[in-house]
Amino acid sequence: MTEQPDFEPMPTDWERCLAIVAHPDDLEYGAAGAIAGWTAAGHEVSYLLVTRGEAGIDNLSPAEAEKVREREQRASARVVGVDSVQFLDHADGVIEEGPRLRRDLARAIRRHRPELLVTLNHHDSWGMPGSWNTPDHRAVGRAVLDAAGDAGNRWIFPELLDEGLEPWDGVRYVAVASSPYVSHAVDVTATLDRAVASLAEHRAYISALDGRDPVEYAREHLTTHVQSAAERFGGRPAVSFELFCR
User: Fold this and answer.
1) What single DSSP character describes residue 243?
2) Cα separations (Å) of 203 from 103, 184, 208?
3) What whole-number distance in Å separates Cα of residue 21 and Cα of residue 29?
């Protein structure tokens, strides 16, 4: 077996980050530990959720679930120092790839003007046999990569100019969490407890999914995740990303 190279540290020469994912809880399954460190260091991080996760809890109707999951996501974000949480209201489970999604993301990028975008794995699988990724994750992740360029081109979605949104070509990095092709990492030694607390805020979702105490579930899941990354990051518990540089 070919030895994998060590992870490079994630760049920190940026001021603003916009994290774009499909569902409430997507950022908490790993990336939140890095986000907690970034906000503590003075970086500005905002969240954009493409859906409200309304199809994610079997024993709750979509109308009930979206309220619960929005509330849990806002509480989860506050734990890691994020106050700006917005929702686009695309339909959970059936997000459609295409110009509408790209335009919505380009609009948000022009508004927030980030240098760093964070999203979730857009590849077909999670990198393990039989681990097929979901359509929503694939659609949103690919759209984020496309929208990073769309936001800087005034002739793509020119209607955004009518909304007073000038092009933003300042996205320098797109970091993809939980990718099977990770290359960079963030040390989360000091922020793992906050990451656990952040994931545990998704109490209704975790209870329906697993049945265990949310804190116990979150600690077991995230500890396994960061220890695995530590093998390629000098033994330090870490959150890993696939990094695209523009």
Assistant:
1) E
2) 33, 30, 9
3) 12
The CATH number fitting domain 8-245, selected from 1.10.3720.10, 3.40.50.10750, 1.10.340.30, 3.40.50.10320: 3.40.50.10320
3-state helix, strand, coil split of the chain in percent (to 5) is 40, 15, 45
Torsion angles phi and psi, residue 76, rounded to 5: -60, -45
Cα 55 from Cα 90, distance rounded (Å)? 12
Instruction: Give the global pTM.
Output: 0.96
Mean local confidence (pLDDT), 188-193: 98
Q: What is the model's pLDDT at position 1?
A: 46
Task: Say how many CA atoms lie within 13 Å of 104 toward its Cβ.
Answer: 20
Eight-class DSSP state of 105: H
